[in-house]
Amino acid sequence: MSIAETAALDTWNFSEITFAVVSNSESYNQNIVDKVINQFENDFRLTIVDIELQ
Questions:
Q1: In sequence order, what DSSP letters do the residues of the chain get, joined into one string?
Q2: Is residue 50 part of a domain?
Q3: Which of 18, 28, 36, 46 could cysteine-pair with 6, CB 3.0–4.6 Å?
């Protein structure tokens, strides 16, 4: 897994986070994606505006 802040780098109260997961198992990838999204959703300091999956 790789994660990075990819947009709005100069904005103090907004950020775009991009992450990628690579493996030969689609179910493993989905499990990791779900865990990452849950981690962000459970952080009271954050508000998720949009999630885009590709």
A1: -EEEEEE-TT-TT--EEEEE---S-HHHHHHHHHHHHHHHHT-TT---------
A2: no
A3: 18
Q: What is the pLDDT of residues 7-49, one digit of tens each?
A: 888 888 899 999 999 999 999 999 999 999 999 999 999 999 9
Number of domains in the chain: 1
* 51 located within any domain: no
Structural domain that includes position 15: 2-41
Q: Cβ(20)–Cβ(33) under 8 Å?
A: no
